[in-house]
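Annotated sample (chain length 268).
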Amino acid sequence: SISTHEKKDGIISMLPSSDVCCTNSASLSSSTCGDPRYELSCENNMTVLTLFSGKYYVKSINYKYYTIRVVDPGIEDRDCSSIPRYFITTSNFTSYYNYQYHGDLYEAHSQSSWLGHIIYLNCSKPVKKDPMYVDISSCVKCNSEGHVYAIAGNIKTGRLNVDCQVKLVAMSSAPALKAHISTGQSYSYMEIHEMLSYGFYISWTRRACEDSCDINKQDCYFNQTTIGLECVSIVESACTTPLGFQIRCGNSSFHCVPVTRAKINEMK
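Output written by the structure step:
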């Protein structure tokens, strides 16, 4: 069992510190109990989720939206000299770009959360007159030659300085990062580090759908209005395009599938 700090409106906040008392392992919810694919563990009094080849500390679990917020173990709160341990992007999740893919245990896209990137670059020359590149030398002392910068958000090819190479990418669901991408507001590296400390959300909706729907005959999606899962009969006459949408075969009418909809097959 894993003791929790707070439970409110279906959200459990974890304390990844010595105040957390946990033994053995636990699952995300009763529906995943006994499913080894979704077990949490406890290491050094930290609640841990294994994701790909990395182990992330659990910050909170939202049972209403089937999301879990995790943080890279290399990040320490209020210590801007700490950097992420793992290289991870939305590209690690095949289902992020292919909604018909069902091999991912967790999804990077969720109806109730948002994901952005923090990018670290090493540049052979100083980058001037581009506020997107935030110098991290005041916090992080790197052994490598060159100049190291952090970028909050994605970067287009045209903005990538020819003297720079991407060295590390991490993810964050911090509200401040989302606001930055929307407004273009500049941030200090301390503020960017706080975004990393917030962590990022992933969803186990696919697993929940296995229990709620007939996966052989129904699609499953999360309804934002009712705040719950809904099962929809599969359109037998629909064909899936390479982009993940469906069209009705044999005529010109289109049947568009919402991007939040996940067709659930057995993940075995």
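Annotation: Residues 116-196 form one domain.
Annotation: The chain is about 10% helix and 30% strand.
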